[in-house]
Specification:
Elements lengths: L8 H37 L5 H30 L4 H6 L28
Length: 118
Amino acid sequence: MEPSITFTEEQAEKLANLQRAYFKEVKPLGNELRDLRIELRFAASDPRVHSQTLLAKQQKFSASQARLENLLFSYQVKARAIFTQEQFERLPASCPLKMRPGLGRGKGMGKGFQNGIY
């Protein structure tokens, strides 16, 4: 069993505010990615669409994905700064804030923003 971690009221409020700000910022970007994914999927299935147009759509989609990943990383860094060193060390090894290699999306991790157009 992993050790438990206790937050101060101030830390809990900061984390809640940070989470609200993150969701407020990420929601329109998630909607944009969904729309771009659909647009790209339909364009890719249309033989009349020129290859340059497809590449441009893919680049736009990839740029939006990169913005989302940068946003996530930025908020993770901000959330880490809320904890003391001792609290951070007590976070479970699987906590995304630890940013350990090998943790990430994979089969069975649930739905969310996923790579690719399909």
